[in-house]
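Appendix B, Record 12. Input sequence as logged:
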Amino acid sequence: MKTTVEIADDLLAAAQRVADSRGVTVQALVEEGLRQVVEAARERPRFHLRDASFGGSGIDPAFEDGNWERI
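Logged structural output:
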């Protein structure tokens, strides 16, 4: 698939030097970089909120029908 991406001139020049030294195209470098970013996102563990409940039997019966001002 073709797409257009704006890249800062200095970054593109540096990427071209790296590509030339490796004997590959800038397109190959871009694809390699995107693959690394996508893979890193897959490997990152999902956030898990620990269970911080403390037990008990719920709200005190005296406040069951109360509003926030009363509580």
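The helical segments are 9-22, 26-43.
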